[in-house]
Amino acid sequence: MEILIRSDKTTVTDAMKEYVKEKLTKLEKYTLDPSIKATVMVKVRNYTQKVEVTIPLKTLILRAEEESEDFYSAVDLVISKLERQIRKNKTKLKKKEKTGIKEFNIDDIIELPEEEKEIKRKKIEIKPMNLEEAILQMELLGHNFYMYKDSDIKKIALVYKRRDGGYGVIEEE
After folding, report:
1. How far is CA 11 from CA 14, 54, 70, in A?
2. Count of beta carbons in the 10 Å neighbourhood of residue 83
3. Element of type H or E holding 8
4. Within a domain: residue 117?
5. What's the farthest any 2 CA atoms get from each other in the chain?
6. Structural domain boundaries, residue 12
7. Based on the domain organization, do 100 and 141 belong to the same domain?
């Protein structure tokens, strides 16, 4: 696996590079293609280290990011998140393999326990309101997002909290 490490507002030391390479090579046991290129981005925000890893494959893109006060713990969290993505998508990967695209050693992937695969469904009544009311409802519920029918444009919209503290809106076309 080829690993490209970039940084923003920080310098990546040789020890940090070696640690990232050591951890990412653990993911090689799942892949069949040795020419995979992983991109690692290391950023510093205030007192936290943010590590983003992107691994583009033929059929999907593995991507994870984590933030921690310690660089090494952020790397560990990102790697475990990537492994979890691979395990979670084992059945989808098997289907791809049947169509002739082989990218993973399916036998090496240990499936997650059933309780972690459960999909919870919820039916809601979508009420017409403006954006400010939707943000207020979201905050009152303590959620990170809220779906509503925008009374101005008469379409379904979703407001969500952004990581930078602001809000975002996704609207129906």
Report:
1. 10, 20, 14
2. 17
3. strand 2-8
4. no
5. 55
6. 2-110
7. no
User: pTM value?
Assistant: 0.58
pLDDT for 27 beyond 90: no
- Residue among 110, 4, 106 at smallest CA distance from 54: 4
Same domain assignment for residues 133 and 162 = yes
DSSP 31: B
Please work out, in degrees rounded to the nearest 5, the angle formed at the alpha carbon of residue 108 by the alpha carbons of 79 and 85. 35
Secondary structure (3-state) at 43: strand
Question: Which residue in the block uniquely carries the two structure tokens 């909290």?
Answer: 161
Q: State the total domains in the chain.
A: 2
First to last CA, the chain: 40
Strand partners, 63: 54
Rounded distance between C-alpha atoms, residue 128 and residue 169, angstroms: 15
Let me know: does 55 contact 110? Beta carbons within 8 Å.
no
Record the tokens describing residue 68, joined without a space. Answer: 């921690």
Residue type present at position 26: K
How buried is 24 (Cβ within 10 angstroms: 0-12 exposed, 13-18 middle, 19+ buried)? buried
Q: What's the pLDDT tens digit per position in 34-55? A: 778 889 999 998 888 999 998 8
Query: What is the distance between the alpha carbons of residues 90 and 20, in angstroms, rounded to a whole number?
Result: 24
Q: Could you say which DSSP state residue 18 is in?
A: H
C-beta of residue 65 within 8 angstroms of C-beta of residue 42? no
